[in-house]
Amino acid sequence: MKNTEIAKILYEIGECLEMQEVLFKPRAYEKAANAVESFEEDVSEIYRHGGLKALEEIPGVGVSIAEKIEELITNGRCAYHEQLKKKTPVNLSELTAIEGVGPKMVLKLYKKLGVKNLNDLERAARRGKIRALEGFGEKSEEHILKGIQFLRASGGRFVLGFVMPQIREIERRLQNLKNVERVVVAGSARRKKETIGDVDMLVIARNPKSVMDYFASMPEVINVYAHGETKSAVKLKNGMDVDLRVVPHDSFGAALNYFTGSKAHNIALREIAQKKGWKLNEYGLFKTKNQPSSRAQVEGKPKTKNGIQIAGKTEDELYKKLGMDYIEPEMREGWGEIQLAQKHSLPELIGYNDLRGDLQVQTNWTDGANTIEEMAREAIKLGMEYIAITDHTKRLAMTGGLDEKKLLKQMAYIDGVNSKSEFRNSKFRILKGTECDILKDGTLDIRDDVLAKLDVVGVSVHSHFNLSRKDQTERIIRAMKNPHADIVFHPTGRLINRRQPYEVDMEAIIAAAKKTGTVLEIDAYPDRLDLKDEYIRKCVEAGVNMSIDSDAHSTAHFHYLEFGIAQARRGWASRSEVVNAWGTEQMLARLK
Ligand code: DGT
Ligand code: CA
Ligand code: CA
Ligand code: ZN
After folding, report:
1. Distance CA 348, CA 366 (A)
2. Hey, which residues does 236 pair with through a beta bridge?
């Protein structure tokens, strides 16, 4: 059983328990599910080697949950889970995917209206049955309908950071086949879009048929749409489609370029080629006179019919021949990158190894799965020079948010950890921080005299998402004016595929960041990626500094930084604009 499958069932158990208003246990299951989901090694494998004891080593997994995992691995099912499901036969994950619908509400809707799934809920809402329930009103009915609409509109796109491990696993297996010379992932996954519609893979192979046969018979494939000599397409168990194309060695660069997209970028390149009297397609760049220019007319014709190939073996060569610098995939959206490349003035994007620390990290002092020391050790292993511990504050009671007293206690504790020989001898430093709630009126959840003692103060909105645009903007700007507020965490509050951002005037927030010297975060958690690319570009233009933080709730989440960096690159940001790409002292000097 795959980690994601085990995690899914643990999540469901947690949700069922929450539905039945059991205390504490739901959090435990959620934490464990979270840890299993993002665990790098295969949990089934760990069990095979080390048994129950080894399972208990996974952060957040105690003996009772370890037993459930054991049962799942050995029997493929878990009696406790099935018993819970039987008691309330609802599609919980489908229903709770709607913003604002939690397990307790699901139970009520089931008991009062017999709602079992999304369709039932939509029908009940449209018939006005929800507003009649106690504790609901017209507003909540409207809200539910909006949530359903949003969910449907996101139309089965996959959050890149969550599916990337699976994509890389397939890539690795193909690469290991004897006949395969090269495999790459193209399409929106290569451009590192927030979400992807499907996966586009290219291979160079000596014996394409054997590669295609393997691809169509992979264990996670549930449907084969096409199984040809040069192109196959499949659907995976998780619902994601994957295309695989075999391309000729000499056309590899052109094919990679074509299938990476974006479509707008491709079209602009092709026009430039045409102006030079050339032809560009997925087979190469060709010198040709009076050739048909539309793709439809050349498709399927052998390469030789295209003319004399003048570039296309590599992408580098292709861009060069077209008279411009190489353009990173994350910039290929047709946003003016081609003009910059022609003028040799593309920005130097922040690199995937450029981060030196992480400024948003949660621990088991609140809703994280790991201790301060465990998070620090993992960060050291990954080559970081600092992390800021930023647990939630008291208004977020459900996470056990810290009040002033506990925060002071944590600060003293961090001083203690930093002075232990294990950490003292390394260049590494644990910084004292907070993710301080912004209250409704824009004041902060922690007193100023305590904030003043911290190294890093992150502020964020976790409540009152429905304020008017004007009030929300004023609220956040007021928080930014606090002399201790260093960074605004996840500035727009969106959750990809789940929740729209709150109404806020980002132009005004960016201007206020400039004026108050506040940093804006790019939260790297895969379904946040907040700021989005468009706002990152505005920050770059305005000269507003950003941070790229993992928002880690377990040691496994530091890997999400990759997607935050990708987002920064998609927003054309350079290293000099990202404060945690700087060393400890320089970064701290920049904060308020
Ligand atoms: P997605 O899958 O919706 O996340 O987005 P993409 O960009 O991966 O799009 P997809 O999978 O439809 O196609 C992969 C690439 O192939 C795309 O980025 C550009 C190229 N492509 C597809 N259709 C066309 C087309 O009609 N014209 C041109 N020029 N390129 C195309
Ligand atoms: Ca695609
Ligand atoms: Ca595709
Ligand atoms: Zn937060």
Report:
1. 38
2. 221
Ligand 1 centroid to residue 330 C-alpha, Å? 14
Ligand located closest to 268 CA: 1
Closest ligand by atom to 553 CA: 4
Within the chain, which residue ranges are assigned CATH 3.30.460.10?
Answer: 158-246
Q: Which residue, judged by its Cα, is nearest atom 27 of ligand 1?
A: 263
Residue 301: predicted pLDDT: 41
Atom number of ligand 1 nearest to Cα 187: 8
| DSSP state at residue 496 | T
For ligand 1, is residue 267 a contact (CB within 6 Å)? yes
- Ligand nearest to C-alpha 460: 4
Homologous superfamily of domain range 357-590: Metal-dependent hydrolases (3.20.20.140)
According to CATH, the topology of domain 252-342 is Beta Polymerase; domain 3 (3.30.210)
d(CA 131, CA 110): 15
Probe target for ligand 1 pocket from 158, 266, 332, with the most ligand atoms within 8 Å of CB: 266
The ligand with the least distance to the CA atom of 260 is: 1
Q: Within the chain, which residue ranges are assigned CATH 1.10.150.110?
A: 3-154
Tokens standing for residue 334: 């047709």
Tokens found for residue 186: 């193209």
Q: pLDDT tens digits, residue range 53-88?
A: 999 999 889 999 999 999 999 999 999 999 998 888
The pLDDT tens digits for 150-193 are 777 766 789 999 999 999 999 999 999 999 999 999 999 999 99
**φ and ψ of 449, to 5 deg:** -65, -25
Among 196, 199, 200, the mutation site with the greatest number of ligand 1 atoms within 8 A of its Cβ is 200
Class of domain 158-246: alpha beta
> How many Å lie between the centroid of ligand 3 and the Cα of residue 254?
16
Residue nearest to atom 2 of ligand 1 (CA): 197
C-alpha–C-alpha distance, residues 565 and 488, integer Å = 17
Quote the ligand 1 centre to 316 CA distance (angstroms).
20
Q: How far is CA 438 from the centre of its chain?
A: 24
Ligand 1 touching residue 198 (CB < 6 A): yes
Q: Name the token pair of 125.
A: 């809402």
Cα dihedral 366, 391, 527, 564 in deg (nearest 10):
-140
What is the residue-wise DSSP string for 455-471?
Answer: SEEEEE--S-TTS-HHH
Burial of 368 (0-12, 13-18, 19+ CB in 10 A): buried
Residue 189 alpha carbon, nearest atom of ligand 1: 8
Query: Where does the chain hold its CATH 3.20.20.140 domain(s)?
Result: 357-590
pTM above 0.85, yes or no: no
Distances (CA, A) of 502 to 471, 476, 478, 495: 11, 12, 17, 10
Identify the bridge partners of residue 232 per DSSP, sorted by sequence position. 227, 244
For ligand 4, the distance from its centroid to the CA atom of residue 363, given in whole angstroms, is: 13
Write down the CATH superfamily of domain 3-154.
DNA polymerase beta, N-terminal domain-like (1.10.150.110)
Q: How far is the CA of 187 from the centre of ligand 1 (A)?
A: 6
SS3 labels along 340-373: HHHCCCCCCCCCCCCCCEEEEECCCCCCCCCCHH
What is the 484 CA–ligand 1 centroid distance (Å)?
46
